[in-house]
Write a structure and sequence with these properties.
alpha+beta; Cytochrome Bc1 Complex, Chain A, domain 1; 2 domains; 16 helices; disordered N terminus; Pept_M16_Zn_BS; Peptidase_M16_C; Metalloenz_LuxS/M16; metalloendopeptidase activity; metal ion binding
């Protein structure tokens, strides 16, 4: 930290200058709303994101899908703007705006030319703070969301990941669909959605992140002006603490979840519960994941696709939350080859668990992790996302050098220790395809 300034109205700090050229500053406004920016003078655009620390895991069963419903509704109109006003204001200057919902947060964002940053901040702050949530709009968006759910059900390659998450977490909120279900969306009332909005969209839960050609003090001034007559400014609030850390979510033992569907391709995910995003071993897991299924040079891609030609797509991935995590391998193959593909995957995981990876693989896994991270920072949207997630999910922002050093510090022993622990856990299987009567129990039972 290079500088710290405290006033009665706001607390501002300047972080180390980014070696890629950006200077990061952060201000906590009265009430606890946080503004974090990265100034990159060489850019001519600015990306702004309003990150709300509320997602599908924060919903009760009866409110399942409320966060995603709000994502749709907040763009439908405010006290000052209609839905057309919101979209046309940004599009008239060649910008773009959108939103997305995750299990632990929701993000509303825009990307515009630097000269149009005041407009984008004003529109986004208006959307997040002053939505009117008209009854007619609730009904219109209900139909849109039901269509979105139906479309998702027609994409088994996406659906299988939700099936896998459900197998791991069961009835816990992390196991529920972000979109909600047809039943919960049909039952949600305007009163329920509005109540969720006003209870949960509070200043300490919000981070405003911006990156590009900007001045931090100007961004803070614009945010203050946009929110001056709303409940998101005022008081002496402080940022809410991070979610509980540690493996606090009880995951289930190995589960088998199969959906019989008349598809041309079988969709499979084999995996288990993993570590949280706060676990210090997450960097070793990232390296190991790249070695196992992170690219075309990975072990599983080479074995399943390149050497055997059994699948077009095969990869491994991690999902990490405040108090839980998952790791899995996805493969899409001809249904008749599902057992063979799963057998190869299981055998290779057992091999790596027993014998570890090599020094050359460790170096390649590190290179993939570092390269992917740095190359991903070459646009303002990625930089903005890094700021928002860092502040919202971790309560801190590691510099680029700090992150690269953490990856470089991973040793072969550490990666192999993760492999020995993770890959010997009971594995759950999610499968979608024409599997009526097919016996997959051996895959789970042999875990």
């Amino acid at each position: 930290m290079a500088e710290a300034t405290n006033t009665a109205r706001a607390r501002t700090r300047t972080l180390e200058a980014d070696p890629l050229g950006g200077t990061v500053r952060s201000t906590v406004l009265p009430g606890g709303l946080r503004v974090i920016t990265e100034s990159v003078p060489a850019m001519r655009s600015v990306s702004i994101g309003l990150w709300v620390g509320i997602g599908s895991r924060d919903e009760s069963p009866t409110l399942s899908g409320a966060s995603h419903f709000l994502e749709h509704l907040l763009f439908k109109g405010t006290k000052r703007r209609s839905a057309l006003d919101i979209s046309s204001a940004i599009e008239a200057v060649g910008g773009e705006t959108n939103a997305f919902t995750a299990k632990e947060y929701t993000c509303y964002y825009a990307r515009v030319l630097d000269n149009d940053m005041p407009l984008a901040i004003d529109v986004l702050c208006d959307v997040i703070s002053s939505s009117v949530l008209n009854e007619d709009d609730v009904e219109t968006e209900r139909d849109v969301i039901l269509e979105e759910i139906a479309m998702h059900d027609d994409e088994p390659g996406d659906e299988v990941h939700d099936l896998f998450t459900k197998a791991i977490f069961g009835e816990h909120a992390l196991g529920r669909l972000i979109s909600g279900t047809e039943e919960t969306i049909s039952a949600l009332t305007r009163k329920q959605i509005a109540g969720f909005y006003h209870r949960r969209y509070t200043a300490p839960e919000i981070v405003i992140a911006a990156a590009g050609s900007l001045d931090h003090a100007t961004v803070v001034k614009l945010v203050r002006a946009a929110l001056k007559d709303t409940a998101l400014l005022g008081g002496d609030g402080v940022p809410v603490p991070a979610r509980p850390q540690g493996n606090l979510v009880r995951t289930r033992s190995a589960q088998l979840s199969v959906v019989d569907k008349d598809t041309e391709q079988a969709h499979l995910v084999l995996g288990c519960a993993s570590m949280t995003r706060h676990d210090e071993r997450r960097f070793a897991l990232g390296v190991l994941n790249n070695v196992l299924g992170g690219g075309m040079s990975s072990r599983l891609f080479q074995l399943v696709r390149e050497q055997r030609g059994l699948a077009y797509s095969v990869y491994s991935y991690t999902a990490q939350y405040a108090d839980a995590g998952t790791w899995g391998v996805y493969a899409g193959c001809t249904p008749a080859k599902a057992d063979e593909v799963l057998g190869i995957i299981r055998d290779e995981l057992a091999n790596v668990a027993a014998n570890g990876i090599t020094a050359a693989e460790l170096a390649r896994g590190k290179g993939m992790l570092k390269g992917g991270f740095v190359l991903g920072l070459e646009d303002t949207g990625s930089r903005m996302s890094r700021l928002g997630k860092g502040e919202l999910l971790y309560g801190e922002l590691l510099s680029v050098d700090q992150l690269l050093n953490r990856v470089d510090a991973v040793t072969l022993d550490e990666a192999n220790a993760i492999a020995s622990e993770l890959l010997t856990r009971p594995m759950s299987l999610a499968a979608i395809g024409p599997f009526d009567g097919h016996d997959f129990s051996g895959v789970v039972r042999s875990s």
